[in-house]
Amino acid sequence: MSIRHALLALLSEGPKYGLQLRQEFESRTGEVWPLNVGQVYTTLQRLERDGLVESDDSADEGPQKGFHITSDGEAELAGWLRTPPDFSSPPRDELVIKVLVALGLPGVDVHEVVQVHRRYLVEVMQQWTRLKEDESGFDINFALVVDAELFRLDSLIRWLDMADGRLKRAAADAVTAPAPQPFPLPKARRKAGARP
Amino acid sequence: MSYLELRDITKVYGEGAAEVHALQRIDLSVDAGSLVAVMGTSGSGKSTLLTIAGSLEDPTSGEVYVGGRPLSSLSRNAKAQLRRQSIGYVFQDYNLLAGLSAVENVSLPLELDGVAARKAQSAALEALEDFGLKDRASHYPDMLSGGERQRVAIARAVVGKRQLLLADEPSGALDSTNAEAVMRLILAACHRGMAAVVVTHDAQLASWADRVVFLRDGRIVDQTFPVESPEAVLADLPNQ
């Protein structure tokens, strides 16, 4: 989550005060990610240092100090919106690591380990789904955040299901797996606009 | 109070070397007004569980109670009557009758049960209206989208005084938006007092349930604990 770019996005709508930025950030993200005011001011100072925002010199320091975006700030924001996050290398996923470790341990039933995680993930999904049960008073930003979380958790459960099935088949076939080979990772182009 | 109860249910298909234990010693109870999801991969026995719960198939051993009545004590006719009056079924492929309009599909189970045609039709129209399908009432299934067909199928499953809703992968062929709409309708039926069981491999669907039961190789291996309140969920979110 880039607070820096979120603040630039809010300032691209027009000049704003620090406190106002904090309130708008929280309401736009469905109030799921609370932001402390210190983070807002530290980020604004860095943005100002980098020439991406300018402060209103006439006002005092503090909550009434206004900020506006510069043309460099507009360009930075436009570039960031179109730059895909880095999905080219697998993240250090604790869940994946735990299942891989369980696989190599004598006396550990990997299916039982998988089920512990599956149940926990479904329970967390049930909690998120509860939040969207009542459609009245459900704002669109919050809905998008809840959906994103549900899809993320769902993808982990799908992986667990796949792992469970793959291990079950491997055990049934009694196939000895070949020695692990380093696998090539897809090379993804990260920077938008890098296309010739 | 449990409306549906499965006690020590085992189902075996085939004999000798070809014997398959589809379900083994299943205990499950579903209260009126609650939604239980049975989650499992293909071949885990979840569809068999649903057909046995709905009296479409008999268990090899064990007993199914619907509304407190043991199914084994009912005659073939009494079971058929129970299915018509008290149980609604929803399937992945909708199972609507192609030659009947939406309203005729919904009113059919009532008419089969002896409700006068006009009364059945008006109850069916009311159900379709509740589901936002009033203007589709005279459409035939092939004139409806997948989401609309499934909504008609759910209307058919809840119309009348049904008390048990059994759904097998009810959103299997639908996109996420329509899948959510289907689960909202099933949940609304539970809020009106129906007991519901949804079997699925899909965690997003299962997460609408009050309780999720995990089925593996014909056995219940685990279940989720009761869900916390929405407020507690938000309060627990990390401050990032």
Mean pLDDT of chain B: 91
CATH topology of chain B: Rossmann fold
CATH class of chain B: Alpha Beta
| Percent of residues in helices of chain B | 25-40%
Oligomeric state of the chains present here = heterodimer
Q: What overall geometry of chain A do the principal axes of the alpha carbons give? A: elongated
Unreliable spans of chain A are: none
Distance between the termini of chain B: 43 Å
Number of domains of chain B: 1
CATH architecture of chain B: 3-Layer(aba) Sandwich
Q: How far do the termini of chain A sit from each other?
A: 29 Å
Structural class of chain A: mainly alpha
Largest sheet of chain A: 3 strands, antiparallel
Describe the structure.
- The complex is a heterodimer of chains A (196) and B (240).
- Chain A is built from seven helices and three strands.
- Chain A has 196 residues and is mainly α.
- Chain A has two domains: 3-81, Winged helix-like DNA-binding domain superfamily/Winged helix DNA-binding domain (Arc Repressor Mutant, subunit A, Orthogonal Bundle), CATH 1.10.10; 94-173.
- A three-stranded antiparallel beta sheet of chain A has the order 1-3-2.
- The longest helix of chain A is centred in the last third of the chain and has 34 residues, at 140-173.
- The radius of gyration of chain A is 23 Å and the shape is elongated.
- Chain B has 240 residues and is of the alpha/beta class.
- Helices cover 35% and strands 26% of the residues of chain B.
- Chain B contains eight helices and ten strands.
- In chain B, α3 (102-112) packs parallel to α5 (146-158) and α5 (146-158) runs parallel beside α6.
- The longest helix of chain B is centred in the C-terminal third of the chain and has 16 residues, at 176-191.
- Chain B is globular, with a radius of gyration of 18 Å.
- The chains are: A mainly alpha (196), B alpha/beta (240).
- The interface between A and B is medium-sized, with 31 and 30 residues.
